[in-house]
Design brief:
Number of helices: 1
Distance between the termini: 47 Å
Number of strands: 7
Shape: globular
Structural class: alpha+beta
Number of domains: 1
Strand content: 25-35%
């Protein structure tokens, strides 16, 4: 019985780590914002505009191109928008995306403009 409970506990922890929803998970209100220091590679200023940056779920576009999952779709991560991770994010394996979503009046996601993205793996 004890082995079964340990096995279930381990399976639950593993599942919790991988069963993230799609979209962007922002830092909670009042928490430090590690995205403020990220600057756009095109010289356009800060990557982050309020709550448009956060941890994203990885996916691949056409089986090879890296992307992130939001609104039921895998959005490609442009290689020219990669920025090195700030110190606060350099030790994580998470994908961090800063984007501006475009939505219809009923809230459906129809497009994204990716300002920048980063992870500890590089572009």
């Amino acid at each position: 019985m004890r082995r079964l409970l340990i096995a279930l506990g381990i399976a639950g922890m593993l599942g919790a780590g991988t069963a993230r929803g799609e979209g962007i998970r922002h830092p909670p209100p009042g928490a430090p914002d590690p995205y403020r220091s990220m600057m756009r590679p095109d010289g356009g200023g800060s990557c982050c505009n309020g709550r448009d940056c956060g941890i994203a779920r990885r996916c691949t576009v056409h089986g090879a191109e890296p992307g992130y999952l939001e609104g039921g779709r895998c959005w490609p991560l442009p290689p020219d928008r990669y920025v090195p991770p700030p110190v606060e994010l350099a030790r994580t394996t998470d994908l961090h995306v800063c984007r501006a979503p475009a939505r219809t009046t009923d809230g459906r996601l129809i497009g994204v403009l990716i300002h920048c993205w980063t992870d500890s793996f590089g572009s």
